[in-house]
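Incident review: delayed structure delivery

Summary: a single-chain prediction request sat in the queue longer than the usual turnaround. Root cause was a stuck worker, restarted by the on-call engineer. No data loss occurred. The affected request and its eventual output are reproduced below so the record is complete for anyone auditing the incident later.

Affected input:
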Amino acid sequence: MSKTFWEDKDFNVFQIDGLENRMEALIKNIRPKFDELGKKYSLYFSGALGDEYFAHVAKHARRSVNPPKDSWVAFAPYKRGYKALPHFQIGLWGSHLFIIVAVIYEAPDKVAIAERLLKKKSLLTKLPDEFIISGDHMKQDAIPLKGAKKTDINQILTRLRDIKKGEFLVGRHITRDEAVKLSEEEFLLLAEETFEQLLPIYKTMINIK
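Output delivered after worker restart:
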């Protein structure tokens, strides 16, 4: 049987009580995998987009009481951070794996990004039905694109444009049950396939052709 990339113990990290204990398990079980993905996909994005991309593995360093509910590795063309830029992520909640492109509230260019995406909504409606969209990176729930191809896309993008805290995420959620069955090769192929489908949206976000 082929080795899987993700295991139940990775998702179980987010059920561990206490900041210190959860962080210890996260650092032991999950962070080495994010480091590995960071090396692989920073090279992938650098090649696909013609600029140097850097991996940013979540450190959760500012937390002093509440343990993290999710964790991730993000990719952006800036060595010192990613939150102010549109960025790609691979990450975990206790319930699922996510592979997304996101614009979060720290991005100063949110208004222009939203306007470009509103003009090119067809890029979103052409995505596979099993993709998801969301307007809040702090919430694990998302809207399946199959039921969101009219009003929800408009609402989330308009909120991104008009509301300071507005955000936009699009990509794929994979349940933990599915994720732990994927062989390492299957997972890496799925991640790359997802990123390829998200690249036209990202290029619209950063205004390149």
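Verification: The chain is about 45% helix and 20% strand.
Action items: add queue-age alerting; document worker restart procedure.
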